[in-house]
Amino acid sequence: MKAHDAMYIDGRWRPAATADTIAVVNPADERTVARVPAGAAEDVDAAVRAARAAFPGWAATPPAGRAARIAALRDALAARADAFTETITAELGAPPDLARTVHAGLPVVIADSFARLAATHSFEETVGNSTVLLEPVGVVGAITPWNYPLHQIVAKAAAALAAGCAVVVKPSEETPLTAQLFAEAVHEADLPAGTVNVVTGLGPVAGAALAAHDGVDLVSFTGSTAVGRRIGAVAGAAVKRVALELGGKSASVILPGADLRTAVRASVAQVMFNSGQTCSAWSRLLIHRDQYEEAVALAAEEAAGHTPGERIGPLVSERQLRSVLGHIDRAVAEGARLVTGGPAAPRDLGHYVSPTVFADVTPGMAVAQEEIFGPVVALLRYEDEEDALRIANGTVYGLGGAVWAADDATAAAFARRMDAGQIDVNGGRFNPLAPFGGYKRSGFGRELGAHGLAEYLQTKSLQF
Predict the structure, then answer these.
(1) 346/82 Cα distance (integer angstroms)
(2) Catalytic residue positions?
(3) Looking at residue 342, what is its pLDDT?
(4) Which parts of the chain span the membrane according to its record (predicted)?
(5) Less Cβ around it within 10 Å: N or C end of the chain?
(6) What is the pLDDT of residue 399?
(7) Edge to edge, what strands does the sheet with 124-127 contain?
(8) Distance between CA atoms of 348 and 328, rounded to whole angstroms?
(9) Would you say 244 and 443 are in contact if contact means Cβ atoms under 8 Å apart?
């Protein structure tokens, strides 16, 4: 694992505009493992200028040519599986198995999907006497989070490249080493200089400069709703395109007749995945009153099996740790019943939180309304299906969710009434070609598959 003391701009590593740096801390042992440049507005400007210069040539590259370069990027990512595993374990704290299979493995699948889409997608159609063209939107500013550092970069950059856009990536300051390793893969894939640029830095400095830059045509942001609002305001003032994938407070609804044990255990495990640091985590578990106490016991049993330091890693930072512990304290103060876990530190070192289950949660409590972004699950009772639907839809968010029932038809009928962008039916498998994104304050725009590609295209019609 190494860190570059430079920015990847215009196909090369170039010195940063200032000597300021950011410490990269391993959240498992709290050691500083590296330092990277803290980019300034000058670095962002250089990256955007490089992207603008590269855009016309890349946009004019035939789709098959773009597909070939994205496939080369896919192969370069796959060849670095060990390096990505080590890096993501060090700066995010993900257990090595999770880092390898999901954090390093899934982006290869996503890159492959966009290589195939670039080659097969129809960028032109005939409508009556018109020819409708789908053209790249231009230069994309991709501002990515720390929780899935490589996946989020690849989901944005590969889609933008497939569309014919040039990209400037500003990764989270918590996980910049993964982004630098991604830049190495870009370089090996022989993408034209300036097509992909990576600038490390702080959100209020480098991120803000990228969102506001006149040379950026679209800002794609994944992160908190609060920051998304600010980016949306900046983009709106400049009349530029924006795609926002924001917070969530997703519900897993277990209907009578479902396999209770399977549904509860799968739902709790999904919340504990990546230490609860997943925007679409099913952090609210809705159970019929007649099965409630049985479900509470099953949830506690499942949570107890996620041992900190083994099956579950630390939270990414001390700030995130304080935030999650504050949510736990507030839930107790509001009267939720702490079933397992809680604020006590499970290990002497590292930003760990014990897997935590709350029962007797009511819909108005903060633990049922606010995104916690940690291994905390709230169990709520419902009276009947209409009550369950009211509770499931009763937050400002609408990102993900799940429904469990005796059969898929019953679960799907309920899922169709939920206000959320992606809902698993009876444990449905992840589909990298299906669109991902939210309703309400979970944002707008979609990632992955053809719908994700469409975010980076604009439409022109020629009348004959």
Answers:
(1) 29
(2) 245
(3) 96
(4) none
(5) C
(6) 98
(7) 124-127, 130-136, 457-463
(8) 19
(9) yes
